[in-house]
Amino acid sequence: EIEFMYKPGNVSTAPPVVAPHQPRLDWQMWFAALAHHSSSPWFTSFVYRLLQGKKDVIRLVQVDESRYPFSAQPPIYIRAQLYKYWFTGSAEGSGEGPVPWWRRQHVQEFFPAVSLGDPTLESLLSQHGLKDKTPLKRSADAFLPWLLQSLRQLSRPFSGPAVLWSLYLVAATVSLLRALGRRPRGGAPPARHKGPRRGEPAERGGGEKNGQVRRKEAKEAEEKGEGRARGAAADGHSDGLRGTKKKK
């Protein structure tokens, strides 16, 4: 059985963490399994290239060619089976070893067993227009194809998630270093608080606060004045009473 890098296969293999990478082949195989293989012509071409042993196609299955069972010699026959997968629960273990990650059930044959030169395979290739064609000639001096080919050669030993996370870490490191380089050395001196100049109005908050204090002081002074007036009136009344008593 051919193991893929991302999609479920071996029931004992844990699901990998691929975000933010989007595995093209494994994702398309999930859609292909929802209908007949004739609805996904690319799958016929995929089987054909595996039978031919195309290295670029094999790297879509496994970056590490040692994990591909036909790295030394292409397979003679290939067929595809359709399975349904479920995650297992902790109670599904046998007790003798680790619990498998997956539980699967065979549904049906998805693609018939074919080999190179098989009439069924040749008919499907002709039907979908996937027969080998003369490759387009490219200029040897073109810079963009050379650059893309060089980048592909450099990234071949690594998986998609590893390449993306490496790029993200490099970008984050560069941004952090640039931010640290913009900081002033020695620190900026503390800013001094300057009061309003002569003729300039005070700040709004301070003006409102001073106005409230003034109104409070005026109210207290008014209350004190009323208290003194009442006290004076009371004293005058008592003096009048004393004078009346003396006359009597």
Largest sheet: 2 strands, antiparallel
Class by alpha and beta content: mainly alpha
User: Can you count the helices?
Assistant: 7
Compute the number of strand runs. Answer: 2
End-to-end CA span? 135 Å
N to C succession of SSEs: HHHEEHHHH
Helix content: 40-55%
Shape, please? Answer: elongated
Oligomer: single chain
Mean of the pLDDT scores? 80
Pfam families: LMF1_C
Biased composition (Basic and acidic residues): 197-207, 214-229
Domain Lipase maturation factor 1/2 C-terminal: 1-112
Protein name: Lipase maturation factor 2
How is this structure best described in words?
With 248 residues, the chain is mainly α. Among the domains are: 1-132, no CATH class; 211-243. The protein has 7 helices and 2 strands, in the order H-H-H-E-E-H-H-H-H. A two-stranded antiparallel ribbon has the order 1-2. Residues 240-248 have low confidence and may be disordered.
